[in-house]
Amino acid sequence: MMIRNMCILTLLSMSLAASGQSLPLSLKEAQAMAIDSSYAMRDSRFNTEKKIMEVKEVLAIGFPQINGNVEYQNFLQLPVSLIPNDFNGGTPGTFTEVQFGVPYNLTASITASQLIFDGTYIVGLKASKTVVELSRNLEGKTAQQIKIQVAEAYHTALLAEENLKLLSQNLENINKTLGDAKATYEAGLAEEQDVDQLLLNKNQIEINISNSRRFLDIATQTLNFVIGLRLDMPIVLTDKIETLVSLNNSPEYLQAEPNYETHPDMLLAKSNLEVGQLNLRGQKAAYYPSLSAFFTHQQNAQRNSFNFASGNEPWFPATIVGANLKVPIWSSFQRNARVSQAEIGVRQNTMQLEQTEESLKLEVTRARSNFDNSLKTWNNQKQSIALAQKILNNTSVKYSEGIAGSFELNVAQSQLLTEQSRFIQAAFDLLSAKQQLDKALNTY
């Protein structure tokens, strides 16, 4: 599934890039795409796949194991044995040197073994499956983090677009005011300082626009990177700030009950506790005996010359069937120390599970408070920016009628720019607070 989705995404990106079209993306679409194609999620899936293969590796230990072996020996010098001469009526205390064997030996064997009982294997098999669940829970936590990262990158790019839009509107307005001021100055009804002041404001706005364009490019590339798209892939953000803000700011959302049991952090803490408990069982199982059976058949050829392929020379067979019983007796308290360590680990995991639950409760309280404060700031800032715009409009009218001077106009324009910057920051803080509350409530 992951490979298929990646292929579809790659083909789509290449097609859009070739045609010069942009990829439209809402926040939910960007998050869904990142779950399929982001580097972090792909890495997490690879880790899970490796854990699944590790389970198969452990499972194979309990199945029959068959191995073949071929051993060739070439005795450049045959070993010498000493036989007492007493055996053949010779002088007692003296020996005769003899050599047994032939220079060339070839042994081919096949051995099959089967584990019959091993307590550590049974516990280890269950533990390996639990580790897979732990890896899947880590994958779920990674998915949660990826969604938050995509949301932050999306919000940053969206607000960068909004900031650029506001600055462009300001530039358009100041160009109109500057044109009127020049005409008034040329008619001798205004001072040159009024024109210079407007030019100064225009230059500052143009600098801000240039910086904002560069920041928007970086923000867009960052979003592409988090999603897993090519950095030069053109995208269009289809969501609006007001839409994202108004999605979940109802009283029901603020008072929603968190789902702790399926929260990735709780699942991880529970998996860690289960792994610790299985580790304790595995250490205790080390006290139990283990039993295995084996079968070996071998063929041995002994030659005075290297002619093992000859069918005229004999091969000598040997067949063995047996069992191996291993009984732990004394380990100088080594096993006891391992059991004690595992018991401490279980107590530690239990404590960490309790800590995680209390931490999630605290996170919900903190996230609700931050979201509520950010929402109030956002609403106040919308009123402030409307007031600043109203003040600027009135001041511009007065300036064009000669009632207000360039100083009042400059102050009004500066106020609007300041409130617009605060508006952007308030929007970012609110959207970030919403993501943290979503995480705490486990609504992803």
Q: What topology emerges from the helices and strands here?
A:
Elements lengths: L1 H18 L3 E3 L1 H11 L1 H23 L3 E10 L5 E5 L10 E5 L4 E14 L1 H68 L5 H36 L7 E3 L3 H6 L4 H4 L9 H22 L4 E14 L12 E11 L7 H67 L5 H36 L3
Helix pairs in contact: 2-4, 3-4, 4-5, 4-8, 4-10, 5-10, 8-9, 9-10
**Which strand-content bin applies to the residues?**
5-15%
Shape: elongated
Low-confidence stretches: none
Largest sheet report: 4 strands, antiparallel
| Cα radius of gyration in angstroms | 40 Å
Structural class: alpha+beta
Number of strands: 8
Distance between the termini: 21 Å
Number of helices: 10
Helix-strand sequence: HEHHEEEEHHEHHHEEHH
Spatial order of the strands in the main sheet?
Answer: 2-5-7-8
Fraction of residues in H or I helices: 55-70%
The overall pLDDT, averaged over residues, is: 88
Structure summarized in a few sentences:
With 444 residues, the chain is of the alpha+beta class. 66% of the residues lie in helices and 15% in strands.
Polypeptide structure, described:
Helix content is 66%, strand content 15%. The strands form three sheets. A four-stranded antiparallel beta sheet has the order 2-5-7-8. Strands 1-6 form a two-stranded parallel sheet. The longest helix has 68 residues, at 119-186. It is built from ten helices and eight strands. α8 packs antiparallel against α9 (334-400). It has helices at 2-19, 27-37, 39-61, 119-186, 192-227, 241-246, 251-254, 264-285, 334-400, 406-441; strands at 23-25, 65-74, 80-84, 95-99, 104-117, 235-237, 290-303, 316-326. The two termini are 21 Å apart.
